[in-house]
Amino acid sequence: ADLFEGIVMAEQRFHGEGYQEGYAEGSQAGLAEGRRLGALHGARIGSEIGCYLGFALTWHCLLQKCTDEKNSKKIRALDILIGMIQKFPYEDPTYDKLQEDLDKIRGKFKQVCSMLNIQSDFKMGTERSSLTF
């Protein structure tokens, strides 16, 4: 009876072993793919934020020479944008409001561009990011 039981139960045993091996292999492949996609997405966000910061710092320097009321409002808006970017949690991928803060930075950037009468169009290309005017 034991001899036949091994033969009859072989299909179920092989199915279970195959499932376990497939699950382990899929988990490893999923982790590697997740890391790759996370690094790619993080690099895109970093490039976008870096572009905003460079833009804001450049305009801040350009507008400091003029001290009229219009430019002081623009400088205050640039200061707020720079502050938002500097407080952005780059090192914490588990930050639960990361997307919300990124959207706020994007909104402030658009507001600053509007104040400066600049059309902004941040594009992520395959080669590099660009800001067109």
From TrEMBL:
Residues 18-56 form the Essential protein Yae1 N-terminal domain. Belongs to the LTO1 family. This is ORAV1 protein. It comes from Orthonyx spaldingii.
